Structures are given as C-alpha cells and as structure tokens.
Amino acid sequence: SPAGSLVDAMSQKHLQINQTFEELRLITQDSENELKKLQQTQEYFIIQYQENMRLQAQFSQLSQLGPQERLSRETTLQQKKASLEAWLHREAQTLQQYRVDLAEKHQKTLQLLRKQQTTILDDELIQWKRRQQLAGNGGPPEGTLDVLQTWCEKLAEIIWQNRQQIRRAEHLCQQLPIPGPVEEMLSELNGTITDIISALVTSCTQRLCCLTSATRLEAGALIFWGFQQENLPGRNYTFWQWFDGVMEVLKKHLKPHWNDGAILGFVNKQQAHDLLINKPDGTFLLRFSDSEIGGITIAWKFDSSERMFWNLMPFTTRDFSIRSLADRLGDLSYLIYVFPDRPKDEVFSKYYTPVLCESTPAKAVDGYVKPQIKQVVPEFVSASGDSAPGGATYMDQAPSPAVCSQPHYNMYTQNPDAVLDPEGDFDLDDTMDVARHVEELLRRPVDSQWIPHAQS
C-alpha cells in the first residue's frame, strides 16, 4: 500500500541518518585520540628543546675550564648537541605532519557533519512540518517528534566536540609555532564550525517558532525545549541555556574584548591549566565558566606553596554592570600577560576608566564624597605573600621553543557574593533566546576550586 511504502522509505532514511551519526561518532573519537597523540608528542619535543638549551648554556661555561678539559668537554657537548638538534629537526617535521593530518581529518568530518545537518534541518524537518499539517487536517498521526529531538541533540553534541578539538589544536600551534599551512587550515575550520553552529541554533528557533502558529500545535516549543530536557552532567541546566548565557554576556559587556582576541573563551579548566603551565608567573587567560550560566572567569599562573594555578570566581552580567572587565583586570596588578604573551595594559588599557589622581581630592556632591570600587582577591594576596597591591614579584621564564626563523618565542567571614564555590547549583533564566546574534558574536576577527572575588 502507499502508506506502507511511505513507512518503509522513512525507515530506510532514518536508518541511514543513524548510521551517519555512528560514523561521525567514531571519526570524532578518532580525532580526539589523534589530538592527544599530537599533544603528547609536542610535550616531549618541548622537553628535548629545553635540554638543547641546557647544553647551549654549558657551552658558555667551558671558558672557565682548563684547555685540555675544555677540549674534551667541548667535543662531547658538540656531539650531543648535533644529535639532539638533528632529532629536533626531524621531530618538528613530524609534528607539522601530525597537525596537517588532524586538520584534514577535521575537514572531512565537517563536510559529513554539514551534510548530515542539511539532511535533518532542510529535509526531515520540513517533511515533518508537512506531515503535521496533514495530521491536523485528518491525515495519519505523526510520531517522529522524539526522533527529530534526538537527532538535533546528537548534532549539537558532535558539533561542540569538534569545535573544542579545533580550538585545542589552535592552542597547541600557538604554544609551539611551526611555519606551514596549518594556521590557515585551522582558521578555515573555525569559520566552518561556526557556520554550522549558527545554522543549527537559528534553524531550531526560527523555523520551529513558525511551526507553532502554522500547525495550531506547540510542536516548535516541544522540539526546541526538548533540546533542553537533558541537563549537562553534574549541572542543573542544559547546553543551550549555558550557551545562550555566553552569548548574552558577550553581547552586553565583552564584545570589544572578544573581537580583540583577548578572550580565549571555549576551554575548560584543565585545558586552561595545560596552556598556562609553561608560561611565566602572572600569565592569565579569560574563559567561559562551565559551572555558571553567563559567567566568565580568570585563570592565571602563580607558583606558590599553596598551588600553581588560580581560578577566579566567575563574573556575570551583574558584576560587569557595576565595574567593567577591563577595570577589574587593571586592579589586579599580579595579572601581567594575556595568554599567550601579550602585556595586559597593551590589550586592555584603552578600555580603562580614567581615575582621579590620588593627589586630587574627590569633590563632594550634595555633601557626599564619591567612593571608588576596586577589585581585590584577599586569598591570593595572602597566599602569594604580597602585602600590598603591586608588590608581587615574578620569576623570569626561559625562552621556549619555536621552530621558525625568528630567534625566540615564548611558549606559549566573607561577603555572601564572594564565596568559595564548589560548582553547585545556580538559578536559571528560562527566557533565553539561543539564536540571539550567534553568528555575529561567534565570528571573531582574530584568532574545582574557585577563588572569591571581592570589592572594596
């Protein structure tokens, strides 16, 4: 019968879509393994590079030895250094090939991912809409709502996994620059994955919102909010609610810094620590909090007896309505370099709010003297032994490797509003519109311990 043929065709199409999802899952996992292999290889390369620098330092000390001993030591050191430099040259080529292979694998993944997304959003979703209209006019009931929801959830998960992988690959290249085509390839991949994210989010809102009025059913709301039924692991909110919070704080308070490339953004806490580990004390990065909706946090390196990495409790729109991000960073004198190695004042000084000189008394208005708000982190001041702002000192960091023509590169009882946050529950704003300016805000032109922040 015609109805039976239609069901068979739908079943075959659904089977094909599910098989493609399994293929995407496997190649995404394979890319993850390749990325870890690349990271481990690069870490060992850095260790060997530092050993080569140590041998170079020993050469400079040979002049203090007698002629005979100096000749003997010099010959041994030259042999070791020549062997190590030959290995470094070969391994740099291997690293570059690993990067190219990974980028090509991501290119193939994104091609398949875009095709799968087009099938679901441009074919299946439109057909579902038509079947809903027919069902409202006496046609057979439509029962594929749960299937569409599952597909869109899988799309979001795989898209986000690949975006995170591409970002991590970019960070590895920043940490160890090697001339080649990878930088351009990663830039193109970043643009492609951004377009895919934008298409998914806008389709899930614009098209489905139209369905509600067209079918006299709340189908659009059911699918869209169906994406949000499953909370993120260990959280009481969904991916889309978290994602829209990021978009909101970017739009309202952080867009200039995002466009300046000052916000690293989509990295988790462990990835932030991995990026900072070879950096000088005082190097920091800005990332979106994965424990609070619409939060952005500062992670920085300062090696003390207590810990090496510090994570400031997330700032939200409410905090930036009181004092801007740039002014807050300007208050914290021990934050010196924006990752990977840009001086903080060079990046943020144009956004600082002008302040009166201390020698200029504040003018009273209607009998009141206007106070000033300043960002302080009492726990860090105590742990670092810094008794006064600006008094911290930092150890110099030896130059780290770069396989390029340039000689050196850097490797890359408390206030209730300020408490140590064990990453617990947070209030949600269920009125978020996840499509709001996604494409505009995501397309930048350039490339479980919280510390309480207080205002005094």
Automatic annotation (TrEMBL):
Q: Where is the SH2 domain?
A: 258-355
GO CC, sorted alphabetically, is: nucleus
Gene Ontology molecular function, alphabetical: DNA binding; DNA-binding transcription factor activity
As for subcellular location, the record says:
Nucleus
- Say yes or no: keyword Nucleus present: yes
Q: Which Gene3D superfamilies match?
A: SH2 domain (3.30.505.10), STAT transcription factor, all-alpha domain (1.20.1050.20)
Record's keyword terms, sorted? DNA-binding, Nucleus, SH2 domain, Transcription, Transcription regulation
Q: Which GO terms describe its biological process?
A: signal transduction
Q: Which InterPro entries match?
A: p53-like_TF_DNA-bd_sf, SH2, SH2_dom_sf, STAT, STAT5_CC, STAT_TF_alpha, STAT_TF_CC
| Record SUPFAM superfamilies | p53-like transcription factors, SH2 domain, STAT
Asked whether the keyword Nucleus is assigned, the reply is yes
What family does this chain come from, according to its entry? Belongs to the transcription factor STAT family.
Q: Spell out the protein name for this chain.
A: STA5B protein
What is the organism field in this record? Answer: Ciccaba nigrolineata
